[in-house]
Amino acid sequence: MISMRGLDEARALYEQRGRAAIAAALPDWEGRIAVGLAGRGSQCFGFDDELSRDHDFAQGFCLWLTDEDDVKIGVALARLYRSLGFAGAQAHSAMAEEGLGVRRISDFYRRYTGSDGAPESWQQWMAIPSWALAEATNGEVWRDELGEFSWLRETLRHGMPEDVRRKKLAAKLIAMAQAGQYNYPRCLKHGESGAAMLALGEFVNAASDAVFLLCRAHRPYYKWSFRAMRELPEFGQALCEPLAFLLTGENGGEGDALKIQLVEDICASVVRELRAQELSAAGGDYLESHAYAVQGSIRNGAIRALHVMEE
User: Fold this and answer.
1) pLDDT in tens, 236-265
2) Distance between CA atoms of residues 311 and 129, nearest Å
3) Is the pTM of the predicted complex or chain greater than 0.85?
4) What CA–CA distances, in Å, run from 104 to 36, 77, 148?
């Protein structure tokens, strides 16, 4: 086990080496610099362990500036940051991109949302994938007197329009019904075990998305989905192990029968949560009818008119 999480280590580095250096070099500007750690990487989610340090891991923290302030002090602040001598990332992936050091606030958010500010339309919200919203809002912010970085962060974390949430949820519910309640057992009956596993995987993927949407949270990149699910409210936590078991439990014979029943149990739990949130009054536990009920509850006519599977 490592002695300190990446988030805690990054904050310690800032407090011990960064704060005083910035205050001494840029005393008139330090209150305009947002400081923290967020973005891509397990350490930004607080999910890192010893193994994480051999892959795309770097010491340091983030310093975020407005576009206007970047013109005035960006170069000087970047030089100061480099002078602190943090270790570089060990990049073993073509997808790796070090996000530490000085960055413009607009550049940070544009990477995830496609724009340098908060989404202004439902179409923009619909287009942003959950993993991108998760990375844009993870980690910690330790200092932000100006407040612009944190305002955008909170908008992306909690500002998704309810009609957009319902539309995305309806698409996930009908995918759950199609893949898990219908296609999985039928593929087994056809003797198509490979297709059955694909259907089960589609069900788990859609169910995971639905769980995060019901918990009003953003699902991260798939490899962290179960880890993040364990930190959701009780409803999400309760479904974490059953969903994982569908992927890891034995198949064939009694295993198949157990998984068919488990799919139905998971769907029943989702239906109870839909009713608790007054999202559906449809009967039964087959999720297709609930998907259409959720879609029908959308107030925005343009969103409601989209195909139920569109997200």
Assistant:
1) 999 999 999 999 999 999 999 999 999 999
2) 10
3) yes
4) 13, 12, 11
